[in-house]
UniProtKB/TrEMBL annotation, chain A:
<keyword id="KW-1133">Transmembrane helix</keyword>
<feature type="transmembrane region" description="Helical">
    <location>
        <begin position="136"/>
        <end position="159"/>
    </location>
</feature>
<keyword id="KW-0813">Transport</keyword>
<keyword id="KW-0997">Cell inner membrane</keyword>
<feature type="transmembrane region" description="Helical">
    <location>
        <begin position="188"/>
        <end position="207"/>
    </location>
</feature>
<feature type="transmembrane region" description="Helical">
    <location>
        <begin position="227"/>
        <end position="250"/>
    </location>
</feature>
<keyword id="KW-0029">Amino-acid transport</keyword>
<keyword id="KW-0812">Transmembrane</keyword>
<dbReference type="GO" id="GO:1903806">
    <property type="term" value="P:L-isoleucine import across plasma membrane"/>
</dbReference>
From TrEMBL, chain B:
<keyword id="KW-0472">Membrane</keyword>
<dbReference type="Pfam" id="PF02653">
    <property type="entry name" value="BPD_transp_2"/>
</dbReference>
<feature type="transmembrane region" description="Helical">
    <location>
        <begin position="9"/>
        <end position="26"/>
    </location>
</feature>
<feature type="transmembrane region" description="Helical">
    <location>
        <begin position="323"/>
        <end position="340"/>
    </location>
</feature>
<feature type="transmembrane region" description="Helical">
    <location>
        <begin position="258"/>
        <end position="284"/>
    </location>
</feature>
<dbReference type="GO" id="GO:0005886">
    <property type="term" value="C:plasma membrane"/>
</dbReference>
<dbReference type="InterPro" id="IPR043428">
    <property type="entry name" value="LivM-like"/>
</dbReference>
<protein>
    <submittedName>
        <fullName>Branched-chain amino acid transport system permease protein</fullName>
    </submittedName>
</protein>
<feature type="transmembrane region" description="Helical">
    <location>
        <begin position="176"/>
        <end position="195"/>
    </location>
</feature>
Length: 292, 375
């Protein structure tokens, strides 16, 4: 019994780690642009496909950086094409544009790679299985939460202690003033997308290595869940997004282990509504003052 | 002014009569025209869904994406209550239909009203927490809600009522094309009346400036709630009609992609224009059928007559492959959003005055062109 619980907890931590990395992308983009990047989940799905193709050509130590690079390029191109022209448009247009990109990426994946689930390549170094008594753990399960925490730590150092991070914080507080202070806002936004997509690519490697298949729609639901994770942690707050990611991941595994896998997605959204009613600024967010 | 009104009334009556005549022609030989009939029925159903979505997005300014969820509720209610009693055991062979439900069979109209009432009730319940949220949060919460509905209907525990993930099939089809068209038209007319009433003006006031609207004495929450309830009720009816049209209700139909598809119609037609949404529904549904050739693989000789079946003619046309149609559609949505964000009609309605003025302008410019060319 205890070993079963421990096993589930480890799985939850692993899934939570992947979710946390994706949630950081949502929270950073929302912090600066005040928009949900609906396409983020699909960028994560595309990263899964990139991995399939690059591992067919390269050894894993070249493939992983290559995948991260491709995902970053994809994210930046999307930002330039679909979001940048709409900077001054009403929020609804931007949101529809983001939905449009998400729809486009799904249909494109469906067209290019067919709707059949493609098997995700096994990276031997991640798949090595350890056995402790009754518990068997693959290496990726252990790496995921550790890597997440290390990357988050580095990111927080970047945001809090470098000039670039200061510019990012300035942009998320007030873009107009930031521009007056000589910050190139567009560059900062691009940087945000670069970081978000890079982390999403790492998250996709951790996520799909445990799940074995990729299909065109495998990004949409995890994407929404990670946004929920970002909201739970307090949108715009990186530590919050990571903790939110772990909460969502562990809850999902626990509910599935209890035999209610149908409701694991439903629970996430119920959690969202509860959080928004009782703590609209999330667990760690700052209270926003409504200006009229 | 009076003359113009009279002219518009006559034009409207003529247009309606022409539509009826066309439908009669289709109906008189429904086997030959079955393709056209399916497209028209489908378009009408999507038009109801698109107009209902436009009510909350375009007129009230609340970005709700729960349409697919409510359509799912409507579809299952219609499915469960209208399939012939003698076929029920066969359809529910795995779970066995709940005994209290087994012998209840209702006519289509009653079922659709029931759909509207149930969806309205559920919307009122969900609206209470959800409508307090602002734009993006509302979008995510309603999207999530629509996924929750799908999960509930696909759950084994409700298998005795919904047949879980196997869905309900063998729903009796429309008796004639008129049944579908008239029900859709009635729904749309009710929504038009609502938009033109004082409630409709309150919706628009909230869309334009919610703080100012509240200051003018509009109860923000109750008005948003009303808009959400009406939207959901008609989405439910549209779902019921869709189930009858497809003759089945399965959870896999009502994914987020369905909501996006309806959103495409609303955006293409023009956010905040009912006639635009109807037009959008017809254009999107129609072109999704006509562009089916994009999903097939062709050789050049099939497309361009006169080329031999060898060499270049035997080569496959690039890009055309299964799934390309939807890529074209999503690109279309992106182009509309980026370069033409008012859609076909903008937020204005299509009226006879606008059509006639447009036609006059077109004629004039042609004449001027002809004159300038002659010179």
């Amino acid at each position: 019994m205890i070993s079963y619980l421990l096993q589930q907890l480890l799985n939850g931590l692993s899934l939570g780690g992947a979710y946390a990395l994706i949630a950081i992308g949502y929270t950073m983009v929302y912090g600066i642009l005040r928009m949900i990047n609906f396409a983020h989940g699909d960028e994560f799905m595309m990263a899964g496909y990139f991995m399939i193709f690059s591992l067919a050509v390269f050894p894993w130590y070249f493939a992983i950086p290559f995948v991260i690079l491709c995902t970053i390029v994809l994210g930046v191109v999307i930002e330039r094409i679909a979001y940048k022209p709409l900077r001054s448009a009403p929020r609804m247009s931007v949101m529809i544009s983001a939905i449009g990109i998400s729809y486009l990426l799904q249909n494109l994946a469906n067209y290019l790679f067919t709707a059949m689930p493609q098997s995700y390549p096994q990276i031997d170094i991640l798949k090595h299985v350890y056995t402790f008594g009754n518990i068997s753990v693959s290496r990726v399960t252990i790496i995921a939460p550790v890597l997440t925490i290390v990357l988050t730590f580095l990111l927080i150092m970047l945001v809090n202690h470098t000039k670039l991070g200061m510019a990012m914080r300035a942009c998320s507080k007030d873009q107009e003033t930031a521009r007056i202070m000589g910050i190139k806002v567009d560059n900062i936004i691009t940087t945000t997308f670069v970081i978000g997509c890079g982390l999403a690519a790492v998250g996709s490697i951790l996520y799909f290595t445990d799940r074995n298949t990729v299909q065109p729609y495998s990004g949409s639901l995890p994407g929404l869940k990670c946004f929920v994770a970002a909201v739970i942690g307090g949108i715009g707050n990186i530590q919050g997004a990571v903790i939110g990611g772990f909460i969502v991941g562990i809850c999902q595994i626990v509910i599935t282990a209890m035999g209610y896998s149908v409701f694991s997605d439903a629970f996430t959204f119920a959690l969202l509504v509860l959080i928004l009613i009782f703590r609209p600024s999330g667990l760690f967010g700052e209270k926003a003052v409504q200006k009229v | 002014m009076k003359v113009k009104e009279k002219r518009n009334l006559i034009l409207s009556i003529v247009a309606v009569l022409l539509c009826c005549l066309y439908l009669f022609i289709l109906e008189s030989d429904s086997v030959v025209h079955s393709y056209a009939i399916t497209i028209i029925e489908r378009s009408c159903i999507y038009a109801v869904a698109a107009v209902s979505m436009n009510l909350i997005i375009g007129f009230t300014g609340q970005f709700s994406l729960g349409t697919a969820g409510f359509m799912c509720i409507g579809a299952y209610i219609t499915g469960v209550l209208t399939i012939p009693v003698e076929m029920r055991d066969q359809i529910f062979y795995l779970y066995g239909m709940a005994s209290w439900l087994h012998d209840i069979k209702l006519p289509l109209i009653v079922t659709l009203i029931l759909c509207a009432v149930v969806c309205a009730g559920i919307a009122a319940l969900i609206g209470w927490p959800v409508l307090r949220l602002k734009s993006d949060y509302l979008a995510i919460a309603t999207l999530g809600f629509s996924e929750i509905i799908r999960a509930i209907f696909g759950w084994d525990g409700l298998g005795k009522i919904t047949n879980a993930s196997y869905g309900v099939s063998n729903i009796p089809e429309f008796k004639s094309i008129f049944e579908c068209v008239i029900i859709s038209a009635v729904c749309i007319v009710i929504m038009i009346l609502l938009v033109n009433s004082s409630y409709g003006r309150a919706f628009k006031a909230i869309r334009d400036d919610d703080v100012a609207a509240e200051a003018m004495g509009i109860n923000l929450f109750r008005t948003k709630q009303l808009s959400f309830v009406v939207t959901s009720a008609f989405a439910g009816v549209a779902g019921g009609l869709l189930a009858v049209y497809m003759r089945s209700a399965v959870t896999s139909t009502f994914t987020v992609a369905l909501t996006y598809n309806i959103l495409l119609m609303v955006v293409l037609g023009g956010i905040g224009s009912i006639s635009g949404s109807i037009l959008g529904a017809f254009i999107v549904t129609g072109s999704q059928e006509w562009l089916r050739f994009l999903d097939r693989e062709y050789t050049w000789s099939e497309l361009i007559p006169g080329i031999g079946n060898t060499g270049f003619g035997a080569m496959n046309v690039p890009l055309l492959r299964n799934g390309f149609r939807m890529v074209v559609f999503s690109l279309l949505l992106m182009l509309v959003v980026l370069f033409w964000n008012h859609g076909l009609t903008g937020s204005k309605e299509i009226t006879w005055d606008r059509l006639i003025n447009g036609a006059k302008k077109l004629m004039r410019s042609k004449k001027e062109k002809a004159v300038s060319e002659a010179e």
